[in-house]
Design goal:
single chain; 135 residues; extended
Length: 135
């Protein structure tokens, strides 16, 4: 079991490093990610073809059996943002007026300014509480 933890930790750290580097090259990142996703699903498809019982309706039913209880069915095909915007009765981005978009942008900017002030205040408090440690 200990070796499994080491393997998982290694790939977790590798993922962090690769994501950090590739995030600076979004086109290359998208290209590599796209190839990986396509090859993964190609493998799943070809493996499923090895089982004659996974054709047609039985394939659909097994897919539903796997994705419905985990919440992936709705999340993947509809998306969380669409569901949440429906609950909130929000307009689609294409239906919003320019004034609404500017108001939302201004609200976000105001929140960012307030967060920066809070962060500065917390750092100031931290200097007085722990003067020798950097927060």
């Amino acid at each position: 079991m200990k070796i499994a933890k080491k393997i998982v930790r290694f790939f977790d750290k590798l993922e962090d490093v690769l994501r950090a580097r590739l995030s600076h090259h979004p086109i290359l990142y998208a290209f590599i990610g796209g190839i990986g996703v396509v090859l993964f699903w190609k493998g799943v498809w070809e493996t499923a073809e090895q089982f004659p019982e996974l054709f047609g309706v039985s394939s659909i039913l097994l897919g539903l059996f796997l994705t419905l209880p985990t919440g992936l069915f709705v999340s993947f095909f509809i998306g969380d943002n669409i569901i949440l915007s429906g609950y909130k009765r929000e307009k689609k981005l294409t239906e919003r007026t320019e004034n609404e978009l500017h108001a939302e942008k201004d609200a976000v900017q105001e929140l960012l300014v307030r967060m920066a002030r809070l962060e500065a205040g917390i750092e100031e408090i931290g200097k007085h509480i722990l003067p020798q440690e950097k927060l």
